[in-house]
């Protein structure tokens, strides 16, 4: 569809990962993309973009770390964001008769995922800035 390419082109330039707003913006882009396209295809597509756009080895490293963090946490955003969510919901229904619906899950999943992923992206940015990772 070209949606990822258009989203990437809308960015002001290749990410340098030296500003918090870039980390948070790319984190949000990754959360949405991973839930629209699924984590694995999204990572396969964006890994090439992150590597190709990286002007320095440090930038490439930061891109890989953010991609790893955001794509991992993204699966919690919606009920269908991860097969693990479906397995747990199915197990809960069989074990205790509890049904977890899409919107009930998403009400909790969206808020907690946005908070956790943003906090993690900000922490990662700070740790990279301080040379701790």
From TrEMBL:
Major site of localization recorded for this protein: membrane
Transmembrane stretches, start-end: 28-51, 63-88, 108-132
This protein's GO CC annotations: plasma membrane
The protein's name: Citrate transporter-like domain-containing protein
Organism listed in the record: Cryptomonas paramaecium
Keywords: Cell membrane, Membrane, Transmembrane, Transmembrane helix
Localization of this protein: Cell membrane
Membrane topology recorded in Swiss-Prot or TrEMBL: Multi-pass membrane protein
